[in-house]
Amino acid sequence: MTNIARPLRVAIVGxxxxxxxxxxxxxxxxxxxxxxxxxxxxxxxxxxxxxQSLGVPHxxxxxxxxxxxxxxxxxxxxxxxxNGEVGLMAVEHGLHALLETPIAxxxxxxxxxxxxxxxxxxxxEVAEQFHRRPMEQIKLRLLDSGLFGRVHSSFNDFAGHxxxxxxxxxxxxxFGARPLRVSGSxxxxxxxxxxxxxxxTRGPRQExxxxxxxxxxxxxxxxxxxxxxxxxxALRWWRSGRFLAERGMGLSVGVGLDVQERLSLLTPxxxxxxxxxxxxxxxxxxxxxxxxxxAHTGDPGLPTVTWVNPFRPARKGHGLQWHDDEIGVAGCLTxxxxxxxxxxxxxxxPWQARLDQEIVLAMQESAxxxxxxxxxxxxxIGAAPGGPADAGARPGAQ
Length: 398
What we know:
With 398 residues, the protein is α/β, with parallel strands linked by helices. It is 30% helix and 32% strand. Strands 14-13-12-11-7-10-9-8-18 form a nine-stranded mixed sheet. A six-stranded parallel sheet has the order 3-2-1-4-5-6, sandwiched between helices.
């Protein structure tokens, strides 16, 4: 186990844009838990540019980086199609690793990473931050409280693409729920000319709509909907995650990033919905960093449920004011740090990431077969403890 008296030494492996604008500042903001010591890139030019921006040595040879700077863990941040190759390289060099999403483009690559990590005794966490965002965390706290009873069905309705959307959908059901089969439908449609926020272009566009149904061994059902222009089109402004439970329901209603949560139980007479009030509490009445979210349930047995931001400043007004996505990604990194320091497994981990990617690939394969259901691999085949067969009910708190 790593000595808790010193910061864990971090190398950023990869020179994607997120390495510079997200991971570098996040690692710095998590001091003294971690310390950024080096960066690696395939290209000398891009590695030098990132190293200069972050003020640390740069390398194009990972073995040389390890010899000179002795990192404990790597944050792998490369283009998505390179996740499997570079993630495996980091693990084979004996580094604990935070891998970007998806864990790998193919399941074979994901399995190779997991096997290499097990062989070398290193920990892997995957940067699936959507369920770690504050508003998702308070919903998971409410579900864990038992107020809603069992969640019967869960929906990703444009809340996130691919594995992100699948992860949000599964989080409401519980990451321990075992998926059996997936049915999918994928279609291409033309769209009227309009502005693309991400590309900065105007003109006719093409969208890919993906629809899927996941059936679970418990009888629960997950429904997935996504459009390829869901993040940057005025034609597709809807964003929602939903769950239908034994004693209530939850619905997020969003226009782009302006999302409102509607969570309801029953009034005492059982005749009307009892809406839960969510209170985002900041450091000051006029702003500042997020301190906590308090859910006022209306239930006399459990009137409040609270999620506390683990990254709130220790001293009022003297700290970083991270937005919700940064809080989520920081939760991924601290999950890995906790596993390295204390033993045990990260709260999400490589098997959950593999399963999310497996569901996405099965949905696409089902669509190619005309909607024929695709059976998923039996969970836990070759899995270490903490794999999908024996995971907890829902992801752990940050």
